[in-house]
Design a protein that fits this description.
By secondary structure, this protein is an alpha/beta fold. The chain has 2 domains: 95 residues, Arc Repressor Mutant, subunit A (Orthogonal Bundle); 295 residues, tm_1862 like domain (pyruvate-formate lyase- activating enzyme), CATH 3.80.30. It has 16 helices and 21 strands. The strands form 6 sheets. The protein has a 9-stranded mixed beta sheet with strand order 10-11-9-8-7-6-5-2-14, sandwiched between helices. The protein has a 3-stranded antiparallel beta sheet with strand order 15-16-17, with helices on one face. The chain has a 3-stranded antiparallel beta sheet with strand order 18-20-19. Helix 3 packs parallel to helix 4 and helix 4 runs parallel beside helix 5. The protein is globular. The chain starts with a helix and ends with a strand. The model has no long low-confidence stretch (mean pLDDT 94).
Length: 450
């Protein structure tokens, strides 16, 4: 691809398309009453996934974009877990028939900062209120720096099947600049401990575009990660938004790599992982060929949700905890973000819904097109349009961005099939944006395309 086109498309600020419409479209018009009616209307045959948000960390990493709070004491975490258990009961009670759960994901923050017995109690509360499939995936995000042996053992007893460990970078200079000192040995011990207690799937999370990062340091980090034999890796571009995340002001913008350097880092990481035998999954994931994620992609079953790429085919995603987002066939819901407001609402026996979005037929069409582009790098526009009762040619005539993408050779048509060229894979979000009817209609700040 021409350098001027690489620069043009890399500079665009776009949604990550973990949902469509993106969360800035959510409004307070979707309240607890609407959410309760959506839950009650869930079909008996539906299957569900659960996301539990634990918004606590022991220290703040300066690159972080999560909804999290810093505490060195266990009291606030224990109180929050108690509220979370009560919310689980409130939500489960709203179903006419509680659906079978096939995926559970604990995110944060750092979920493993809770006491081991608190985690065990939380999983017991889930099992008491929701029927879990015997083969359900239980996944958790982990900061290796704070993982203690007692918690590792608790994860094994609870039946956790997959763990995502934050690495970001092993370069000491980068770690100092982002306030996250984490040695390879600490990470290796965490991985070994998890495997010893039966956690089968190990994911490692990396970031490029961090201060002082270079192609060489990125590749060196990847090679160290490969020594740990992870099943999957997620590789994200750092989003520098100090106006919204004040702690990012500690990062000197002059130390951040420019757009060309970011692209070089992303491509070097991709080349290293592919050469090592990993399959590239969508935009930013990599998996071993025998991993369920790679198999799902090969079979056209890959999905995308708020946790990224997934094999989860569930009809309902229930978000639990402060700021958590859920998705039902009718639309999206998001909980209150403030910890006190969230706890007060739950303690009154009310759902913690703050806002959401009711999907329209047009949204559903565009969401299907965007998900397939993001997952497969290709989409059969004709097939999806016809499935939604739309004329493909009439719909395509409304898309103003698509001709430019084709003219710049980012995409090619094969009949009704729109294919993202392999050389343009990094810019799949730019292609997905061609189907976004809301792009540029809000003041939301999104991350760079690359």
């Amino acid at each position: 691809m021409r350098e001027d086109l690489r620069a043009l498309y890399a500079q665009e600020h776009l949604p990550r398309y973990t949902s469509y419409p993106p969360s800035p479209r959510f409004t307070a018009g979707i309240d607890a009453g609407r959410y309760a009616s959506w839950l009650a209307g869930t079909p008996p045959e539906a299957t569900a996934s659960l996301y539990l948000h634990i918004p606590f960390c022991r220290s703040m990493c300066w690159y972080c974009g999560c909804h999290t709070s810093i505490t060195r004491h266990d009291g606030p975490i224990a109180e929050y877990v108690g509220v979370l258990e009560r919310e689980i009961g409130l939500v489960a009670a709203r179903f006419a028939q509680v659906p079978l759960v096939r995926h559970v994901h604990f995110g944060g923050g750092t979920p493993t900062v809770m006491a081991p017995e608190a985690f065990g109690g939380l999983v017991s509360s889930l099992r008491a209120r929701f029927p879990l499939d015997p083969d359900a995936e239980l996944a958790i995000e982990i900061d290796p720096r704070t993982l203690v042996p007692a918690m590792t053992e608790a994860l094994g007893r609870a039946g956790v099947t997959r763990a995502s460990l934050g690495v970001q970078s092993f370069d000491p200079r980068v770690q100092e600049a982002i306030r996250r000192a984490q040695s390879f040995d600490v990470t290796a011990r965490a991985v070994a401990g998890l495997r010893a207690v039966g956690v089968r799937g190990i994911n490692l999370d990396l970031i490029y575009g961090l201060p002082h990062q270079t192609v060489d340091s990125c590749v060196d980090t990847v090679r160290q990660c490969l020594d740990l034999r992870p099943d999957r890796l997620a590789v994200f571009g750092y989003a520098h938004v100090p106006a919204f995340k004040k702690h990012q002001r500690h990062i000197d913008g002059a130390t951040l790599p420019d757009g060309r350097a970011r692209l070089d880092q992303a491509e070097a990481i991709a080349d290293t992982l592919v050469a090592a035998g990993y399959r590239r999954i969508g935009l930013d994931h990599y998996a071993r060929p025998d991993d369920p994620l790679a198999i799902a992609q090969a079979e056209g079953r890959l999905r995308r949700n708020f946790q990224g790429y997934t094999t989860d085919p569930g009809d309902v995603l229930i978000g639990l905890g402060a700021s958590a987002i859920g998705r039902l066939p009718q639309g999206y819901v998001q909980n209150l973000t403030g910890l006190r407001a969230y706890a007060e609402r739950v303690d009154r026996g009310e759902l913690a819904t703050a806002k959401g979005y009711a999907l329209t037929p047009e949204d559903r069409l565009r969401a299907d097109l965007i998900e397939r582009i993001m997952c497969d790098g290709a989409v059969d526009v004709g097939q999806i349009c016809r499935a939604h009762g739309r004329d493909p040619q009439a719909f395509l005539a409304t898309l103003s961005r698509l001709p430019g993408l084709a003219a710049h050779d980012l995409v090619r048509w094969q009949g009704d099939l729109l294919v993202v060229r392999e050389e343009a894979r990094t810019f799949v979000r730019n292609v997905a944006a061609a189907f976004d009817a809301y792009l540029g209609t809000s003041a939301a700040v999104h991350s760079r395309a690359a």
